[in-house]
Design goal:
By secondary structure, this protein is of the alpha+beta class. The protein has 2 domains: 10-68, 2,3-Dihydroxybiphenyl 1,2-Dioxygenase, domain 1 (Roll); 71-180, 2-Layer Sandwich (Signal recognition particle alu RNA binding heterodimer, srp9/1). The protein has 4 helices and 11 strands. The chain has a 5-stranded mixed sheet with strand order 5-8-7-6-10, covered by helices on one side. A 4-stranded mixed sheet has the order 1-4-3-2, with helices on one face. A hairpin with a 4-residue loop joins strand 2 and strand 3.
Length: 180
Amino acid sequence: MADSIKPQLAHAGIWVRDMDGMIDFYTRVMGFNVTDRGFVERYGGHIAFMSNDPTMHHQVVFAEGRPADAPSTINQLSFLVNSLDELRIMYRRVLKEGVENLLPRNHGNAWSVYFDDPEANNIEVYLDSPFHVPQPFGEYLEFDLSNEEILKLTKDMCRATEGFRPRDEWSADLADAMGD
């Protein structure tokens, strides 16, 4: 880029059919809080702002107006957690919730749990691993394994893959390429 402006993703907005149902799911399962609600005259519907970060007014915005027969146009909404233990808790939470399309994946460069929210929008909860392998890449992630076993399995899987590198080395090269 010619200048140093690099916008960062801050929030996503979703058209919804059932505002209360979506708010219920995102508060109970995803741990979000409603920070504001109101009516938007321009759209003729209600809007809800949600966050799980007290420094951010909103990370997800729901707006009424999605037609009943309209499929999701979202490829995925991705939420980062801090540890394999937190990812395991989320996996068990969504498993208990009975969500559709539950898929735990080991991408080599990240560990993920994919599932649908109540309106069939694809959600990913993930954690970066200390490794890099070219993507797309993925194997089933077995949460019955210990953190140490998952880390060893991932490291062995990545080392056997062409293009494997430690994440910090890959990140440093990417930063150089981006001019940072």
